[in-house]
Amino acid sequence: MIKHIVSWKVDKPDMSKKYCDDAAELLQQMREQITGLLSLEVNADVSRIVSSADIVLYSEFENWDALNHYNQHPLHLKFKDYLGPYIVERRMADYEI
Length: 97
Hints:
Layout: E1 2-10, H1 16-22, H2 24-33, E2 37-44, E3 55-61, H3 64-72, H4 74-83, E4 87-96
Antiparallel strand pairs: 1-3, 1-4, 2-3
């Protein structure tokens, strides 16, 4: 299993929850339609401390091929296009368990 975790700082941290809520339908489509995607969560940080990210994505994939498929999938690209204008910093990690 592959875990894919992404965190973002956004231009208006107080809008983080709205950004997530506005993308909810697209995220649900990703959960239903992307082969090999086992789990997907996206939400806004509530701690609001200086070192925290504003939004985090946690996902699990069957294998590396499934993660590569997700990275090129039109729904994932649409999500990236949606969130892209708001991002000021992005961090990610992929690992196998």
